[in-house]
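In response to the reviewer comment on reproducibility (Comment 2.3), we provide here a single inverse folding case reported in full, input and output, so that an independent group could reproduce the run without further information from us. The structure tokens appear first.
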């Protein structure tokens, strides 16, 4: 049995230094009222902890794991190797070309072990949270309804921006 406070999404990061860069994941989940937990663990520094977490995640009620790491970013891949849950890889920005190292380490998984990798920087952290919401919404009609409303809001926002831009262009003439 799960209740509304049981975490459905596990957010992992390789270091606490990642948190300021990926906080938007949590904000996206909070926006949709999705319960989550946040933990620091490292594929390289605490491999045993990562394995134990990934192996027990489904039985503890989690449905999606979001794994963020920077540099030699192997956390998401290692987690995916130990669980049947969908894993979203979140590459963290670094000094090396904005995080190209993180992006490639996360996305270039071998066949048979998928990691759904979102972008590095920009909308990446928020998209990781929203993708988790969409996965959960497949089996949760109330959440799907909220997500549809959100999408509708996006369309209205862009339409409003377009109207404002057309007006500004007309006034410039
Ligand atoms: C990665 O190494 C972490 O995800 C982090 O992005 C990076 C640096 O970690 P710290 O040296 O700041 O702990 O595993």
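Designed residues, in position order:
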């Amino acid at each position: 049995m799960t209740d509304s406070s049981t975490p459905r999404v596990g957010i992992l990061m390789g270091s606490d230094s990642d948190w300021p860069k990926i906080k938007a994941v949590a904000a996206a989940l909070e926006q949709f009222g999705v319960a989550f937990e946040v933990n620091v663990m490292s594929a390289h520094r605490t491999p045993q902890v990562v394995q134990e977490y990934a192996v027990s995640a489904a039985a503890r009620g989690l449905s999606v794991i979001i794994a963020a790491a920077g540099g030699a970013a192997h956390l998401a891949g290692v987690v995916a190797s130990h669980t049947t849950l969908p894993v979203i890889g979140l590459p963290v920005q670094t000094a090396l070309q904005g995080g190209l190292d993180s992006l490639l380490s996360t996305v270039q998984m071998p066949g048979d072990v998928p990691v759904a990798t979102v972008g590095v920087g920009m909308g990446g952290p928020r998209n990781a949270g929203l993708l988790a919401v969409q996965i959960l919404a497949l089996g949760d009609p109330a959440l799907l309804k909220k997500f549809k409303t959100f999408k509708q809001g996006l369309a209205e926002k862009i339409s409003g921006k377009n109207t404002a831009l057309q007006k500004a262009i007309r006034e410039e003439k």
